[in-house]
C-alpha cells in the first residue's frame, strides 16, 4: 500500500481503492455532495483522540465544538477508577492520576488491536504507571483494582462522556 500524505498516516491507497473500497465505490462516495442533502435531526461528530477528545454539533453549515462541564472544548481521553469503584472520565480522571496513577489510564487508544507482547506495546508501557496485561486472546488490556479493561472499553467510557455533553443540549443518545 502507498501512504497518502494529504490524508494522514491512517489513510492508505490500496490497489483496490481507498481503505479497501472498490474504485467504483470510491468514485461514487467522493463525487457525492453530502452538504446539499437535507439532513433530519442534528449532526454530531465525536473525535476520540489518543490524548484529548471533543464533540461538535452542526449548526447550519458551521460546526460548533461543545464545552464540557468545566467549560473546556477538549476533554482529556483519560479514565480512572477510584478505590471505591467509581469511574472518572476526562479532567477528573486526569487529576486522579497524581494520587492514583496505577488505576488511571490515558493513551490506551495506542493499544487497540495490538498484542501485549508487541514490541511497540512493551516500549510504550514502560512510560506509563498503569499495568498492561495479556488478555486471553493475546491482546494488550489494562488493569485497575484487579479488573481488566480492553482499550476499546476505555475508549467507550470517554465517548460516553462526550455523548453526555450532547445530552445537555437536548440531544438523544
Automatic annotation (TrEMBL):
Record keywords, A-Z: ATP-binding, Nucleotide-binding
Highest taxon, organism lineage: Eukaryota
Gene3D superfamilies documented for this protein: 3.30.420.40
GO molecular function: ATP binding; ATP-dependent protein folding chaperone
Record family assignment: Belongs to the heat shock protein 70 family.
PANTHER family assigned to the protein according to its UniProt record, in alphabetical order: HEAT SHOCK PROTEIN 70KDA
Protein name: Uncharacterized protein
